[in-house]
């Protein structure tokens, strides 16, 4: 991958940046330098550099060969998170959560379409994710907070390349992963202290078609988690998007 986490700071770093701060692999005497290692943004395992001879062109970070730690970035881009119906659902809280979600749907939709996330997502994809949440019982999780919902939505699907009428809107394949502590949705509150990360993985489109995997992983980004977006003024949306939502959910939003 082109970017990794800085060895000690919570920010992305390229191989060029890494060499500039920690020096090249070999010191002036030709001996191996002792350097702090960059970290994988998903699993926090140390990463080695490759392509230091020409880092601007070839510089990438890679997991160490002997690493056996689970890392979502080692998985296929087509392996979505599963929503397991909770064994102790809270029906009343689920109804309140779902109703609040629909009262703020423009906030959720706007966050998902921000530049750092999926800017060319289609409203029909959003509608499909809501229906998936209904069918799978997402709203029934006792500890699910509303502000987390759009991040879960982002991690539930792939965002393949798309073309507009006269230009490419998304040239690469995008998938969102939670950090390695999160293997199921429940892990967001079971195995973290609310400090989970979401990683935006960018894949090259496979030459032979199909779904990309770790071999096609080009780079990763670590978008900032926005916890207070629901307190902002209601954002505007395109009339077509509002009409589509009202047509899909007339009971919740009124008819189109």
Largest sheet entry: 4 strands, antiparallel
Uncertain runs with pLDDT below 50, 5 residues or more?
A: none
> What is the overall silhouette?
globular
Tally of contiguous helical segments? 9
* Share of helix, binned: 25-40%
Provide an overview of this structure.
The protein is globular, with a radius of gyration of 21 Å. The strands form 4 sheets. Strands 6-9-10-11 form a 4-stranded antiparallel β-sheet. Helix 4 packs across helix 6. The longest helix has 14 residues, at 123-136. A hairpin with a 6-residue loop joins strand 3 and strand 4. It is built from 9 helices and 11 strands. With 256 residues, the chain is of the alpha+beta class. The model has no long low-confidence stretch (mean pLDDT 90).
List the helices and strands and how they pair.
Blueprint: E1 3-5, E2 12-14, H1 15-22, E3 38-39, E4 46-50, H2 55-58, E5 60-63, H3 91-103, H4 105-112, H5 123-136, H6 149-155, E6 158-159, E7 162-163, E8 168-170, E9 173-178, H7 187-190, E10 198-203, E11 217-221, H8 239-248, H9 250-253
Antiparallel strand pairs: 1-2, 3-4, 4-5, 6-9, 7-8, 9-10, 10-11
Supply the key terms:
256 residues; 11 strands; alpha+beta; four-stranded antiparallel β-sheet; three-stranded antiparallel β-sheet
What is the gist of this entry?
This protein is an alpha+beta fold and about 260 residues long. About 30% of the residues lie in helices and about 15% in strands.
């Amino acid at each position: 991958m082109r970017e990794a986490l800085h060895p000690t700071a919570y920010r992305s770093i390229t191989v060029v940046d890494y060499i500039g701060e920690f020096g090249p692999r070999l010191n002036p005497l030709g001996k191996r330098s002792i350097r702090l290692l960059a970290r994988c943004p998903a699993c926090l395992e140390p990463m080695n550099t490759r392509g230091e001879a020409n880092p601007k062109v070839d510089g990438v970070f890679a997991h160490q060969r002997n690493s056996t730690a689970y890392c979502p970035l080692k998985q296929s881009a087509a392996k979505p998170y599963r929503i397991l119906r909770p064994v102790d659902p809270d029906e009343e809280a689920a109804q309140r959560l779902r109703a609040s979600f629909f009262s703020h749907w423009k906030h959720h939709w706007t966050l998902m379409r921000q530049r750092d996330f999926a800017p060319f997502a289609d409203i029909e994809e959003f509608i499909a994710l809501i229906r998936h949440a209904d069918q799978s019982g997402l709203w029934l999780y006792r500890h699910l907070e509303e502000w987390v919902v759009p991040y879960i939505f982002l991690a539930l699907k792939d965002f393949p390349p798309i073309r507009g009428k006269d230009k490419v809107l998304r040239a690469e394949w995008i998938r969102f992963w939670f950090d390695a502590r999160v293997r199921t949705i429940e892990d967001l509150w079971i195995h973290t202290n609310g400090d989970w990360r979401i990683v935006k993985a960018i894949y090259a489109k496979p030459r032979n078609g199909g779904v990309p995997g770790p071999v096609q992983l080009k780079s990763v980004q670590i978008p900032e988690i926005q916890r207070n977006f629901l307190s902002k003024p209601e954002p505007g949306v395109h009339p077509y998007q509002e009409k589509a939502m009202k047509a899909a959910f007339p009971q919740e939003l009124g008819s189109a």
